[in-house]
Amino acid sequence: MIVMTNALEKQSHLAPPIWGQPSMPMAVDNRPVMHVVSAPDHENGGALWMDLPPTLRAGSTNPPVGGLLKRMLDLIIAVTALVGAAPVMIVVAMLIRMTTGGPAVFSHSRVGFGGKPFNCYKFRSMVADSEDVLKAYLEANPHMRMEWEKTHKIKDDPRVTFLGRMLRKSSLDELPQLYNIIRGDMSCVGPRPIVKEELERYGDHVGEYLRMRPGLTGLWQVSGRSSVDYATRVALDSQYVRNWSVWFDIVILFRTVFAVMRFDRAC
């Protein structure tokens, strides 16, 4: 059994965390422990929601797209997958601890349904001092700063460990998000979970993003993953929300199995 515990260690990933880490159960006995890198506590956790235009805030009073049916499917799939993936998750957590000495899981604040923030969990794929490594890399490579500011991604990111690269290519780093799905933060299928700074890049489509829980997988992941540009990602997310159906989710879930095998298109 995997037990997640809060840790005092901090780690940056993609953008600075802006909301607090929820409390987690404490470890007992001698069972394997996944230490979670906590996001710093803030008292303005609802600030993002309050900053939204009234028309978008009003939309969050309605149920997420898909309603109860989608939520039931999420729970069935996530619980089943978590039970099946538990042995793999234990092994991955132990490998991270042995190879880096740092926490196995980190949390990072993302924008959820209706603009409500939530802590998104992933297996840690970066070095412990990733923020300092990124700063030094961008200072030494000014031409990469534009890529970082444009996409929040860097090809051959120097912060990513060898094990982390393998986890990303296989998408195993995202397995802890099954916990987010069970909590109700995310859905099995939905728009890509984004950070606050990315909202403005959704332009007229931001309202569609906020109508649904972000997904562990989604239409953009099975349509090229990191090989598609940002504008295409936004368009695919918007298309998915507008055309949602149970059948659409089933097709995307099946296509996800084949997409994660395309290592050359991994996130």
Low-confidence stretches: 1-47
CA radius of gyration: 18 Å
Helix content: 40-55%
Strand order of the largest sheet: 1-2-3-4
Report the span from N to C terminus.
28 Å
Structural class: alpha/beta
Q: What fraction strand?
A: 5-15%
Mean pLDDT: 77
Count the helices. How many? 10
| Backbone shape | globular
Number of strands: 6
Q: Give the ordered list of helices and strands.
A: EEHHHEEHHHHEHEHH
Main beta sheet, described?
4 strands, mixed
Salient structural properties:
single chain; 267 residues; alpha/beta; 10 helices; 6 strands; 11% strand; disordered N terminus
Structural features, described:
The protein is of the alpha/beta class. It contains ten helices and six strands; from the N terminus they run E-E-H-H-H-E-E-H-H-H-H-E-H-E-H-H. The protein has helices at residues 47-51, 54-59, 67-100, 130-140, 142-151, 162-170, 177-183, 206-209, 230-242, 246-259, and strands at residues 3-7, 33-37, 105-111, 117-123, 187-189, 215-217. The strands form two sheets. A four-stranded mixed beta sheet has the order 1-2-3-4. Strands 5-6 form a two-stranded parallel sheet. A hairpin with a 5-residue loop joins strand 3 and strand 4. Helix 3 packs antiparallel against helix 7. The longest helix is centred in the first third of the chain and has 34 residues, at 67-100. The protein is globular and about 45 Å long. Mean pLDDT is 77; it is low at 1-47.
Quick recap:
The protein has ten helices and six strands, in the order ββαααββααααβαβαα. The protein has helices spanning 47-51, 54-59, 67-100, 130-140, 142-151, 162-170, 177-183, 206-209, 230-242, 246-259, and strands at residues 3-7, 33-37, 105-111, 117-123, 187-189, 215-217. The chain is globular and about 45 Å long.
